[in-house]
Design goal:
- By secondary structure, this protein is mainly beta.
- β1 and β2 form a beta hairpin.
- The protein has a three-stranded antiparallel β-sheet with strand order 3-4-5, with no helix packed on it. The chain has a two-stranded antiparallel sheet with strand order 1-2.
- The longest helix is centred in the N-terminal third of the chain and has 5 residues.
- The radius of gyration is 13 Å and the shape is globular.
Length: about 60
């Protein structure tokens, strides 16, 4: 549940990457994602702060691939 799985356009499996390797997160809940008009991907997740004082909404824009 903490991996981003990558596929080609024709459905061929490329591989998987851990959330910590891609985003520097420790235990996020992936909420959604969308491909933007410029071809980049917006990934949305929530994660508790390290001090557990709140849950944060975290968004990353992935581009350049």
């Amino acid at each position: 549940m903490r991996e981003v799985v990558l596929w080609t356009k024709d459905g061929t499996y490329i591989g998987a990457a851990e959330d910590s390797d891609l985003f520097g997160t420790s235990y996020p809940w992936f909420c959604g994602g969308v491909k933007l008009a410029d071809g980049s991907i917006l990934a949305i997740m929530t994660e508790d702060r390290a001090d557990e004082s709140a849950m944060e909404l975290v968004a990353f824009k992935l581009s350049g691939f």
